[in-house]
């Protein structure tokens, strides 16, 4: 049966079906691909604007001893055809930093990073504790969500391996400007409160910079490379050649000539 589906008669049948179904000119026969023992797909060149490299396809089928029929026809991309990239759902295309003012970005229905919180019990003391740790919220971060956040922060520009951290012996964990986070993340992360450093950033406890609260001020005064220079001191110098003033100079300067000669 396969030989009959590969015959010239099968090619002519496929071409006629394409011309009738698609209503377009069909080019030269390109290939015949056996789909299974009862079906063969015939491919033809398709000379269509904006479809360079695409091919017409007609699938012929026939059971043993049965009549050959056309199962389907289609226009398909060939090996060198220009095709659109594979479709990616929007929730997988969004990247960090894409969110703009006014945008709405709801979490996925089964987002593994969040889980339902617990309702209030009605007990004031219990609810107060629940409020402090956040279990009365509608949703809270799962352990997986917190671990993923910690991994991102660890590898960020404010982690322990950052260039700034490697350039100092100080650590944020013992800095007065370090504000630890609440919960399990507080063991390794906090927020910098120094406006001259990583202000408002989540930093690792082993991140560090030169603006640490224990940084000692420079010793001495002025430039550490030179002695301080007091440009306000009065210096006296003896004139080698006394300046001779005329009567006009004496009047304009208001200084007697005898006084200048004695300097």
Task: Describe, in plain words, how this protein is organized in 3D.
It is a single chain. The chain is an alpha+beta fold and 263 residues long. Helices cover 23% and strands 18% of the residues. It has helices spanning 2-5, 8-22, 90-93, 124-133, 143-154, 163-166, 247-253, 257-261, and strands at 29-36, 39-45, 54-61, 69-77, 114-116, 139-141, 178-180, 189-192, 202-204. The strands form three sheets. It has a four-stranded antiparallel β-sheet, covered by helices on one side. The protein starts with a helix and ends with a helix.
Summarize the structure.
With 263 residues, this protein is α+β, with helices and mostly antiparallel strands.
Quaternary form: single chain
Count helical runs: 8
Proportion of residues in extended strands:
15-25%
* Unreliable segments of 5+ consecutive residues: none
Strand order of the largest sheet: 1-2-3-4
Provide the succession of SSEs. HHEEEEHEHEHHEEEHH
Helix fraction by DSSP (H/I, runs of at least 4): 10-25%
Cα Rg:
43 Å
End-to-end distance? 129 Å
Overall morphology: elongated
- Mean pLDDT comes to 80
Largest sheet: 4 strands, antiparallel
Strand-pairing-aware structural class: alpha+beta
């Amino acid at each position: 049966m396969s030989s009959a589906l590969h015959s010239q008669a099968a090619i002519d049948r496929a071409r006629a079906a394409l011309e009738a179904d698609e209503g377009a000119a069909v080019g030269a026969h390109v290939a015949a691909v056996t789909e299974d023992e009862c079906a063969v797909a015939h491919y033809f060149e398709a000379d269509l604007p904006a479809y360079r490299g695409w091919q017409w396809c007609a699938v012929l089928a026939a059971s043993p001893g049965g009549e050959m029929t056309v199962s389907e026809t289609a226009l398909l991309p060939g090996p060198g055809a220009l095709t659109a990239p594979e479709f990616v759902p929007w929730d997988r295309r969004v990247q960090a930093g894409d969110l703009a003012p006014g945008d709405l970005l709801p979490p996925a229905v089964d987002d593994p990073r969040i889980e339902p919180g617990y309702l209030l019990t009605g007990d004031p003391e219990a609810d107060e504790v629940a409020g402090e740790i956040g279990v009365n919220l509608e949703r809270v971060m799962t352990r997986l969500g917190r671990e993923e956040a910690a991994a991102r922060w660890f590898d960020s520009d404010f982690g322990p391996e950052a260039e700034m951290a490697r350039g100092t012996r100080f650590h944020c964990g013992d800095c007065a400007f370090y504000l630890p986070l609440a919960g399990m993340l507080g063991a390794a992360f906090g927020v910098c409160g120094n406006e001259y450093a990583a202000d408002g950033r989540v930093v690792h406890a082993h991140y560090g910079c030169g603006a640490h609260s224990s940084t000692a001020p420079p010793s001495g005064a002025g430039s550490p490379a030179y002695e301080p220079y007091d440009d306000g001191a009065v210096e006296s110098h003896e004139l080698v050649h006394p300046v001779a003033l005329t009567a006009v100079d004496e009047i304009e300067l208001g200084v007697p000539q005898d006084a200048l000669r004695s300097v």
